[in-house]
Here is the input.
Amino acid sequence: MKQQLLCMALILSGVSAQTVHAATTGTLRAEGLIINGTCNLAAIGVDPIKLATVKSSDFDHQQSVAPKNFQLTANCEPEVRNVTFIFSGTPSSADGGRFANTGTAAGVALGLVSSDGRAIRADGTDNTRLIPVVATKAVIPLTASYWKVGPVTEGTLVSQVIVKITYD
Here is the structure.
């Protein structure tokens, strides 16, 4: 029995004396991207905002005539909390805060006001509005109107405002 144990001890000591070598090592790398949800501006530009027909004499005692209420909507995924609406366009040469008229009437520009009563300015100042998302929608109520910038003559008002959104 002593001999068997001695043989077994020798065999086991031979096994434990062997050294294990690693052939190579490497690094595992993982990458990914996490994004917030997205928003899309609901279709605009298909139908122009139609201001009422007015007379040039309507401007005799008023700066702003024929206000037209409307709203813009951003449809968002549930993760989005706020949408910033950014407005830009060509300022009127007579009043940089109003959007230029490319129509045939003289002395008028487009006035744009948000529901808080502040003018959205064409000159790039005070031209953004932060709107919270409620039930996956950010809705901004606006009012467009004719805006007197000089002696008014008959003709058309045609104006273009570019709307961009960012969100978080």
In short: DSSP finds one helix and seven strands in the chain. Residues 1-13 have pLDDT under 50 and may be disordered. The longest strand covers residues 64-76. The chain has one domain: 39-167.
